[in-house]
Structures are given as C-alpha cells and as structure tokens.
Amino acid sequence: MPNFAPLWSPVQIGSTELPNRVALAPMTRISATEDGHATERMASYYEAYARGGFGLLITEGIYPDTAYSQGYLFQPGLASKEQSQSWANVVDTVHAAGAKIFAQLMHAGAQTQGNRFVDSTIGPSAIAPKGEQLAFYRGEGPYPVPAEITANQMEQVRAGFVTAALHAREAGFDGVEIHGANGYLLDQFLTDYLNDRTDNYGGSPKNRVRFAAEICRAVREAVGPDMSVGIRISQSKVSDNDHRWRGGAEEARTIFEALGATGIDFIHTTEYRAAAPAFEGGSESLAALAKKHSGIVVIANGNLDDPETAASLLRDGAADVIALGKAALANRNWPHRVRNNLAFDELNTSLFAPVADVKDWELELPA
User: Is residue 232 within 8 Å of residue 180, measured between CB atoms?
Assistant: First the structure.
C-alpha cells in the first residue's frame, strides 16, 4: 500500500484544527439566489465534500459589499445580515458532516462580468484585464476599461471586507480567506501591467502588495483570534494564464514577507502545477516560497489530484495543506477513495455546460 500518511495528520490553522490536510479549493459555482443568498442546493453540494472526507472546505468567492465587488450574476454574498443568515445552514450542515469551512471573500474589481448593484467597474488603474469574459459564468466579450479606484473607494473596499468577515463569523464560519489571486481586485494591484499608479499603491512590489496587506491586517484585527484568517495568492489569472511576476523569486519574497507580517494565519497559493518551480531557472514552487518567506501555514493548490504528488509536497515541507479543485469535482470523496485505494472517476465536463453551476447529479452524496 502506498504511504500517504502526511495527508491524514491533523493540522492547526490559527484557531481552527483540521482532522486532515486535504481541503476543497474554492470554485465559482454561481448557484445562489439572484440577491446573493445561499441555498439548500448549495448546502447539499458542500455537504457532499464534507461527507467525502475533506477536512476543510473553502467556499467559492463571496462578494463583500453592495457596490463594485460582485463579479458574477447569482454569486453569493456576505454583504448583509440576511445573506449571512442564509449561510448559517450551509455552515451547520458542513460541521455536522465533520468538516471545517472557510468563507472566501472576493472583490472582482475590473474582472467583473455581472453586478446587480452598478453598471461600471473599478480597478487600480484605467486598464482593462486581458482576454475575454467567461461564457460559462454568463459573460460575453472583452472586459470593459475600469475607472481608477479613488482613495475613498479603497476605504470602502477595506470596510466591505471587514463587514463581510464579521458576517461570516456570525454565520458560524471557522475562518475567512481573502481573495488576492486569479486577477480579481487585490491581484490587480499586485499585477504590474494593470497597476500604473504613482502613489503608495503602485510601482514597486512593496507598494503593489500594500492594499492586500492592509486588508489582511484590518480583517485580522476585526474578527479577533478565534477565527482563522488567510489570503489566496496566484501569478496567473482567469483571463491571463501565462502571467508571471516579473521580479521572480525576489518579488515573491517581498510579497510573502509583507503578507506574513500582517498577523494572518495562512497563505493559499494556486498555480497550474503546485509542485512545479514558480520561475524559470529556479527550483522552488510558489508554495515553497510562500512557506519560506511568510513563516505561516501554506495551503497549495494546482494539479494535486495524484495523491503521491500531494503527499510529497507535505512531506517536503513546501506546504501544510493541499487543496483540490477539479479533482474534487470529479471525486467528491477523494480522501475516502485514497484511504481505501479506490479508483478515481474522470471529470464530467458537462459540469461546466451551459453554465458552471451546481448540477442535480452533484447533489448525490458519495458512499
């Protein structure tokens, strides 16, 4: 029998103790009500992963305010108490099935393609994201040019993240993950070609990571020590899969040191291949660089469906937890299958057509 023992040892992320080191990665499923309330269907969807053995579930991106943060139609929110109350059933269902659950808080910024509150977008600079909107999330055509975010709007964004984190705490979530990856607003600040600001939030990597670090610190202080707080970081984006940080490993050091100093509990890195070197000519993965320079827990995501690759990342100390996305969609009981040496199912691509929402057959609980 293969030795996948590193996957099954418990781990502490701030105030949250996980029974194992296998997490569900956040995946946009746009299955909330039109006004952003979580549904029974969503509760059943997350319950399946909890019953399948995942120790931690991280929700899809949840919008934190009623201004510019919503990125997709039928995306869930945590901007209001009513939205918070709708999540309580999801959280209770997951806890009853034996898993922990973090709410991912996401401001879409210039990568918005569906917002019921406003008709325009904001970003660090008046520069449109590359690529086209995603059809399976009801998008069409190129992204519009955003307005450059003002200092007052930045303060509103900070306040929105804090309010949503407090709403997450009221709903019973074990933690929150701030979305600083995949081309959304905080990642737009990190991205050199989307950020040509000349103030303290533009130019050097130290300046470009400042806004994300401020939000991490504000959320950490607001929710207190009894709730886990972290941030997700990537190089690539929804609309630009090939992007890499121009400053390489030294830029990674600046980013991860700044985030690690904010008092948060974890950094969640996502790459196409989590175990691959982050930069040409280097040997360390993005997860390993995050671990090395932040000094906090690291969750790694990206093509870790092979349990040996996943276990080796933990065994080598490059990460503390592994997170599965498409592999989990294909096998909602992936941990159960690995523990019992069972074969994996192939991913059914109809899950993404015509819209990448929760399908009825996903709701059947795994054995």
Answer: yes
Q: Say if CB 63 and CB 103 are below 8 A apart.
A: no
Q: Is the dihedral of CA 213, 216, 222, 228 positive or negative?
A: negative
Q: Answer whether the bond into residue 354 is a cis peptide, omega within 30°.
A: yes
Q: Which helix (H) or strand (E) holds 81?
A: helix 81-96
Give the model confidence (pLDDT) of 180-236 as tens digits: 999 999 999 999 999 999 999 999 999 999 999 999 999 999 999 999 999 999 999
Number of Cβ within a 10 Å radius of residue 34: 8
Q: Give the residue from 279, 274, 275 showing the smallest Cα distance to 301.
A: 274
pLDDT tens readout for residues 144-175: 999 999 999 999 999 999 999 999 999 999 99
Its pTM surpasses 0.90: yes
Chain position carrying tokens 């305010």: 65
- Confirm if 104 and 62 have CB atoms less than 8 A apart: yes
SS3 94: helix
Structure-block tokens of residue 178: 């701030």
Structural domains in the chain (count): 1
In contact, 229 and 265? CB cutoff 8 Å: yes
Please say whether the beta carbons of 113 and 138 come within 8 A. yes
The phi-psi region of residue 153 (left if phi > 0; otherwise alpha if psi is between -120 and 50; otherwise beta) is alpha
Amino acid in the structure at residue 273: R
The residue range of the domain holding 266 is 5-363
Which residues belong to the active site?
Answer: 184
**Nearest one of 55, 63, 69 to 23, comparing CA atoms:** 55
The answer for residues whose C-beta is within 8 angstroms of residue 141's C-beta and 6 or more apart is: 132, 133
**Nearest alpha-carbon partner for 62 in 140, 146, 177:** 177
The CATH code of the domain that includes 122 is 3.20.20.70
